[in-house]
Structures are given as C-alpha cells and as structure tokens.
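This part of the workshop introduces the protein records we will be handling. An example says more than a description, so a record of this kind follows.
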Amino acid sequence: MKNLITIILLTLLIVSAKSYSQSNGKSEQTTICNPVNLSYRFCLDKPSRREAADPTMVLYKGEYYLFASKSGGYFHSKDLIHWDLITTEDLPIEDYAPTAVVMNDTLYFLASSDNPKIYKTGDPKSGKWQVVNPAFPIGMIDPDLFLDDDGRLYFYYGCSNSKPIYGVELDPKTFNPIGKPKALFNSHKDIYGWERSGDYNEKPDNPWIEGSWMTKHDGKYYLQYACPGTQFKSYCDGLYISDKPLGDYKLAPNNPCSSKPEGFIAGAGHSSTFQDIYGNYWHISTMTISVKHMFERRLGLFPMFFDKDGELYTYTGLSDFPFKVPKKKISGPEDLATGWMLLSYKKPIEVSSELPDHPKEFAADENIRDYWSAKTGNKGEWISIDLQKKCTVNAVQINFAENETQIYGRNPDIYYQYLLEYSTDNKTWHTLVDKTKNKTDVPHDYDELQKPVKARYIRLTNYHIPGGTFAISGLRVFGNGGGAVPSAIKDFVVDRMKSDRCIVNLKWKKSPGTFGYNIRYGTGKNKLYHNYEVLDSDSITIRSLNSLEKYYFTIDAFNENGIRKGSKIIEVE
C-alpha cells in the first residue's frame, strides 16, 4: 500500500511538472524557427533599432560560439537552440564583421578595422582575451581566418563595389602575412544575375562583393562571398572553387550557394559555414529588415549540404517555418522537416487598439518589414487571431517590433512578458504559454509546445515590453489545418528572356485551396537547390540566374495542411 501511494505521488508530480513546464514555456525544445531568437542588441546611435549581422560561428571544445557585428559581446550555446550572451571588455565589439578560428585548442579573433589587432583565448566563456598581434599590417573590412588541415593559416578579406576579394597566407606564429595579398575574383554582374543590386536584382548599381568565408571539403577549397548588398532581400552568398587555397578560382555550377529572396524574412548572405558536433554542415547568415536603417538586420540558421558531385548548397525552402535541430548525422533536408505548416497567414485579427499607420492586418501578412502596433505599451494590450477553424497547433513564433522605442545599447530592463492563450469558441480561454514572469530578452520568441493543442483562436496579451508601444511584426502560428493538401501544379510556363538570360518569367495556374508556392530550380534535374517562395500569386520574375547555365524548374504548392511537391520539371536552355 505504501509503495502504491509513493507511485501515485510520483506520477502526480511528473504530470504537474509537465503542465508547469508547458505553461511557462520551458518544455524540451527540439525545433527552431528563423530568424534566430537572440537578444539582438539595440544600436548605440539613432534611430533606436536592433542589429546583428556578418556572423561567424565556431565549434570550440564541443560548444558553439557566435560572433556578430554590433552585438555588445558574443553568444554561446551547447545545442544551437538556447543561447546566452558573453560580455567582454577585451575585444573591439563595436567593429564590424568579426571572424574567429580555432588553432591548437586556442580561439583567435579578428574584426574589421583600419588598424586591426588579433586576440586569443583558451576560455571564451570568461570573456577574457589577450592580444596576439597588436599591429596586424593589413587594414581591411570583412576578414576571414582559415586554418588548413596541414596547419597553414590563410586570410581572406574585401568589401567593395569595385575592388575584388583578396587572399594571403599568414605565419601561424606571428600572424603576419607571408608574401603579398592576391586578388582572387571580382563581380561579373553582366552575366551573374545574383550579383545585381536591388531587392529583386533589378537595379543597375555595382554590387558590393564582400563577406568571404572559406570551407574545405574533400581536398577542394570552397570560397564563399556575399553580394549584392546587405539591405536587399536578394542578399546572398556566391561560391568559387579551387584546388589550392589561393586559387586559381573558378565559379561553382550552383550559384548562389545560399539565398532566400522571399518569405517572412529574406536574405541569406554574409555567412559562415560550420559543422555541428555530429558532422552536419550549417550556414548562419545575415537576414534583412532594413526599414529604420539600412543595417537593421537579423540572423538565420540554415542546413548546408555537399551533394555526391561535391556541389555545395544551402537549403532555404520554407526556412522561416519550424525545423528540427538534429541530434545525429543527417543525409538531407527532409530529415529536418516537422510537417508543421503556417496557419496564421492573412487570418482575421482583433486587437485592443491600433495606430493608423500600423494596422492589425500587418501582424499576419508574412512581412517582417511592416508591423501592427497598439496605441500604448501598457499591460493589457492584446492581439487575437482567428484561424477560422479548429486546427492542431504545434508552435507559435512571436516577432516583436520596435515602435517608438528610445533604447540604446543593453540594459537589464530589456525583456518581454506576455500571456499566450488559446480557445475553440473565443469565449473560454486556456493558457498556452505563460511568460508573465519572464526576465529575458526574446525579440523573436519561439514557443514549441510540448504537446499540440486543438485551437481556433490564439490570443497574446502584453504584460511588459522594454519600451515604446506593444508592436508585432508577425504573430505566426504553426501546425496543421486538418484538411486536404493542394493538388500538384501541372500547368506552368517558363520563359527565359533572350535579351538578358539572367532573367526568367514563370506563370502557372493556381491550385484550389492553396495560398503559397515554392519554386525549386537548379542546373540539373536532380539539383533543384534554389528556392523562391511566392504567396497569393500565379507568376514571378526571377533575375538571379547565371546567363551561361541551363536550368530546370518545378513548383511546389502548399497550404495550412501540407506541401504537394511538383511533379513536372521544365528544362530551360
């Protein structure tokens, strides 16, 4: 009898703990959703806005360290899901585009500067660093340190709309150059569409060629670079390949190797490529908002792969939907899929109040560049979304916007408190996530539910914001609508311009019950590595092709119930 009572009590404690965990948002998280939910620092100058960009991620002693421009420190994680900030007074954290490299159990750091220094530490968690080279002789922007597997050290750099990317070998003891820097490559916007400026590669301006990053794989050197400009949705990474670290370099067949031109948040440029503890490749990139300021940016994390022919590609298809963070070696993007679809797109919204220039519809239009704002930042302001039918809800991403903030730098009062509830009838409400006591900065908070719920309505109530008004750029709900998956798109036409082969026009017949399409294309039938998301349209113009390559296209259709892969592939000479 005594043992039975003990078992019952233990069971009740476990159930209670699980209930408490979910209501307080502390469930075991296995997925993430871009943009990465970091405590992006408020910039020190006006206007008040957040920024992080130009990331470098390194794996050091089995844990991850993330360095990014203007972050007031650097980030640390054990699992690529949970992040903490490490502050330091030893590094030039106000310099742009930091890089880092691990050599002999020591972590080295360098950032953009006219008078750069190189630093080292054996304990990055302490925030303590020492100067290694106090007068590095190359003033530059966008550095990259690369250690080859033979112990030789190389340095790549460059950020210009006229000058090329450079490379030079360094002495691994003194960190001084060995020989003169070598020009490796420059822009060819006349034939490479992804290098053309503008959100849609539509502008004649010279692109900025910048943000180099080196990856070695199977004896080949993969030199990645960013273009055409950090403020554009088209911000991407191109790729050159060589048998030697300083070239000669040839353009890779698959280009750009990383791009995300549309979606809730766009951009996948100026990145770093790294391997996780299981050997999987990842690409962490700069993503653009660029509304309050050109450099208003965020970070995105994407899986990266080498195919059987050694072609490198970043998978960005629907990559601002939730995806799994693996705990083993994976073979392809399908291993990360959750099956959770977007339930909130253009669904009816009700709010406690709104400002005329920031209407409620902006909270569900899948565009981080606009946002709904309540009239105040007071406790009790709320927003509610009607999914229009009872759905299975697995996760919610809350993207807070900075409206009328007067915050600069970091301080302890920068945190969000809220209550997230659900209902089936808009009358009786149940707690989904309770963060009314939260004291952490979560500007893109992502709540993965420990157990999915059936809900039609989701309501978010403000308890505390760090400043300004209560504003949301995206209240994004993920799960499954329980209905039919769209039919396959069969009738579509691809028309490549003869006068400019970087440009292609696509048109298709809408599939009933579909609100989104993902165009997949590439240089081979089995190499459809590029993704271009389209919402509520039956046509698109893509201007980012290599004019010298042949391409293949197909179209996937998706709705709140799932994705229907394209069954027809069109070859375009």
Summary: The helical segments are 2-23. Confidence is low (pLDDT under 50) at residues 1-26.
